[in-house]
Amino acid sequence: MIYLVWFGIMGLISLVLVMIFHTRKKPHFKIIWLLPDESIHETTVQSIDEIIPLLHSVQRISIHNLSYRYRESELMIDEDGFSLAVSLK
Length: 89
Prior knowledge:
- By secondary structure, the protein is of the alpha+beta class.
- It has helices at 2-24, 48-57, and strands at residues 29-34, 40-45, 61-63, 66-68, 70-78, 81-88.
- A hairpin with a 2-residue loop joins strand 3 and strand 4 (66-68).
């Protein structure tokens, strides 16, 4: 009986550790918002799939209480991984 409890506790600890390390390894994609005044605002998302449909479906994007329109986007690849540059007008 003690062995079953011990194995159960160890299994639960292992599961928690796997979940912690799995969430840490999730890739984050950096979004670089290029504003018309040439300033830059950066955010991150879990998946590019979250942001692409939104860019094409909304009329305006508000950053720091100012509204902009989507102009174009560019996928950037460097030593840090992938990022998406989004130009606004």
